[in-house]
Amino acid sequence: MHIVIIGGTGHIGTYLAPRLVETGHSVTVVARGQREPYQPHPAWNTIRRVRLDRPAAEKDGTFGKSIRALRPDVVMDMTCFEADSARQLVEALRGEIQLLAHCGTVWVQGYGAQVPTTEELPRRPLTEYGRKKNEIEAYLLDQTRRLGFPATVLHPGHIVGPGWAPVSPTACHDPQVFTRLAAGDQVALPNLGLETLHHVHAYDVAQAFALALEHWNQALGESFFVVSEAALTLRGFAEIAATWFGKTANLAFLPLEAWKATLPEEFVESAVAHLEHSTQCSCQKATRLLGYRPRYSSLEAVHEAVNWLIEEGVIRI
Ligand SMILES: NC(=O)c1ccc[n+]([C@@H]2O[C@H](COP(=O)([O-])OP(=O)(O)OC[C@H]3O[C@@H](n4cnc5c(N)ncnc54)[C@H](OP(=O)(O)O)[C@@H]3O)[C@@H](O)[C@H]2O)c1
Predict the structure, then answer these.
(1) Pairing relation of β-strands 99-103 and 74-77?
(2) CB within 10 Å: which end of the chain, N or C, has fewer?
(3) Residues in contact with 111: Cβ distance below 8 Å, sequence separation at least 6, in sequence order
(4) Domain 2-159+199-226's class?
């Protein structure tokens, strides 16, 4: 099949595009052409790259048509953040494709009431980002269920992999937390350190997209959380990460406002957002319907990213 990945050179596309080529598909990646994938792979020699700036093309109404002109069988969309963007794509692709797989986010859930959170539980999105992704999901699944448009929605957790900084035990992308743990320096955590994070390796997100295509009849009209087998508490995460450096974590626990003052300014907003969500999702539905089995635990995924950051000299040990 010919698969078009919109935004296919980022975290997910780095693993997804070569994987689809390896299973015999032809792949076109649509992006602005401002970056390269995080990892080289020989498959990129056969992947067609099309340059398009989505918001600009949507504004003049040409985006959907440009994607249709590529004559895809399947579209995997990593860069849709507005319901109007989804509408433009669906209207252009109606009757033309076998599957549209949209990338959402676990933040559609907001905070969980019963955890691990499953897909059918009521949603309490906390951010505009989460609300808009919910709106997109509602629109796409309605299109499938009422009108037969072939859509599915995959909601990744905090995406991790070698090439960028993972969400750390201080709930933000500050890699220096690992430097501190490696040195045995004190790391402050909020409250009792029991808020949660739910990572997923980009390899496993790519796995889920590939499985949604393989099991399209199970995927259509459904949404799936795509996470590792288990979330981490901040405290447990910090304690185990310290052992990677042969250390015992030296942790302090502070009330939220005092803790925020210990963070570098640029990470405060993101850290608080991760705490407020305290994501803890179940991937059982993806396992049951798609055969999704995450290869990486949260800790294995983060450890791999941390080793990359050490090699790059970002984390100093
Ligand atoms: N990061 C996370 O932890 C996380 C967690 C949950 C869900 N998500 C979801 O994951 C999706 C993003 O996937 P990702 O993390 O693999 O992507 P990413 O690493 O952020 O990369 C973005 C991709 O989109 C392209 N792109 C960016 N702006 C564009 C534009 N204006 N027009 C066309 N292409 C554009 C980029 O290439 P160019 O720069 O060359 O254009 C690149 O290929 C989003 O839907 C997000 O909501 C992410």
Answers:
(1) parallel
(2) C
(3) 124, 126, 276, 277, 278
(4) alpha beta
Would you state the pLDDT for residue 254? 98
Tokens 């949209």 -> residue: 102
| Closest atom of ligand 1 to CA, residue 160 | 3
User: How many Cβ atoms sit within 10 Å of the Cβ of residue 243?
Assistant: 11
pLDDT of residue 132: 98
Query: What is 161-198+230-311's CATH number?
Result: 3.90.25.10
Residue 151's CB is within 10 A of a number of other CB atoms, namely: 29
Residues in the chain: 317
Pairing outcome for strands 199-201 and 196-197: unpaired
**Ligand 1 pocket by C-beta < 6 Å: which residues?**
7-13, 31-35, 52-55, 78-79, 103, 105, 156, 158-159
Structural tokens at position 64: 């959907």
Q: Locate the ligand 1 atom nearest the alpha carbon of residue 80 and give its number.
A: 45
Strand-pair category, 2-6 with 232-233:
unpaired
| pLDDT for the residue numbered 237 | 99
Q: Nearest residue CA, atom 13 of ligand 1?
A: 78
pLDDT of residue 32: 98
